[in-house]
Amino acid sequence: MRGVAWLLLVGCGRIAFDARTGDGGSGDASAADAGVDVIDPVGMLDPGFGAGGIVQPSSGAESIGRAVLAQSGRLVVAGIDFTMPSARLAVIAVDDAGVLDPQFATNGELFALPSTGTSGFGYGLTSLPGGEMLVVGDGFVSTDDDFLVAKIDAAGALVTAFGGVDGFISVDMFANDTAQRAVVVNNTAYACGNADYSADMRFAIAAVRLDTGAPDLTFGGTGQYKLNDTAGSDECLDLVFDGTDLIATGRYDDDVALYHVSLAGTVTPFTTGRLGSPRSISRLASGSYLAVGATGGTGFLMRFDANLALDQTFGTQGVVMVPNDSYNDHVVDALGRIIAVGRRNGFIPVVTRFLPDGTLDTSFAASGRFELTAVPAGDLGAVVIDEVGRIVAVGHSDDGTNRMMILRFQ
Fold it and tell me: For each successive 10 residues of the chain (410 residues), what is the average pLDDT?
């Protein structure tokens, strides 16, 4: 899920808008508040950022970017560093020019493992008040992989008061668990993912108090929910807050599904009957929902009405299929255009922009699609719109070694 920006004025190829971000956004609307014109990207990389619009910031020999936040004057990326014998959490900050921010962690980079674990993976990054951030993922703790939740302050240090030890909370949902994304409501973080991924994959959500790191027992009585209704795979890949409850997307018996999740921990699945993996969800200004993902070698966009049924006015029976694409994340801009990121033909990093009705926006790049052919192979895992309207995507390149990668469009 990513924030939606509401249109105020359009003119001369630039947009002035009021940035209202969700759990994946920066929460910083300083440019909009000041009435600053913001950029309407046309699908060209920004030459003022890194080397021709591309930054590969990590000093680690091998790393992957999986999540990004746009904060005032900088970008923060979370992911995985493989430099050590086992994987470790990586959180990296770069300034507006794409240079590592020396005010963040150690020369712009934080690498960390839980004190009781031997690996750490960062998959989701969420803004908190005061510039703090919440990272979710998984790590090998004791005997298997658990949900990992960590709090990081604005200076890039783990908040050790969170959980009372090292800044990490591990949540043992079952055997081999992984958290993908999180949303914050009041003083609770709701991390979603799957439990028992190596066997009978289960839809899973953990509720963690932000002040102490303790389970929020108002959620299901234990602070956990695990669904195992089907013979196929059930999982949660992303979620949003609709003002009252949580709406999650993932799989139910291998099919694309939305889930209605109350803050008390009551969960109701709504399945589409269509095979696929929806990896990102957003709530639109109309109150409907958009999910993007992939099935086989085909990317998809699915729009759902407020009742969580496929919106028959969108695409074909609520679905837009894009052959040869595979989408990991998306964001919706001020004009309702959909920017989806992932890979094309299995190995080319791709940024694709759609009009609100799901047709390709041919004013963006080459017929609506930007393909990064400057690297041999790779993938884009997350996208955000910064405070002046620029599209920022993160992921990795692959020339035999994975390298974290940030792209910014002018």
Answer: 31 28 34 51 95 88 90 94 85 96 96 86 94 93 87 96 86 89 97 88 95 95 89 94 98 96 97 97 97 97 98 97 98 97 98 98 95 96 96 95 95
Q: Residue 334 phi/psi, 5° resolution?
A: -65, -25
Strand 255-261, strand 391-398: pairing: unpaired
Give dist(CA 55, CA 341) in Å, integer.
Answer: 17
Q: How many CB atoms lie within 10 A of CB 2?
A: 25
User: Taking the CB of residue 5, how many other CB atoms lie within 10 A of it?
Assistant: 25
- The CA distance from 115 to 79, in Å, is 18
DSSP sequence for 338-369: EEEEEEETTTEEEEEEE-TTSSB-TTTTBTTE
Q: How far apart are the first and last CA of the chain?
A: 23
Residues 6+ apart with CB under 8 A from 212: 162, 163, 164
Q: What is the pLDDT of residue 72?
A: 87
Q: How far apart are CA 23 and CA 384, in angstroms?
A: 11
Query: In this structure, which amino acid lies at residue 381?
Result: G
Host H or E run for residue 33? helix 30-33
Beta strands at 298-304 and 289-295: parallel, antiparallel or unpaired: antiparallel
- Give the tokens for residue 53: 């619009």
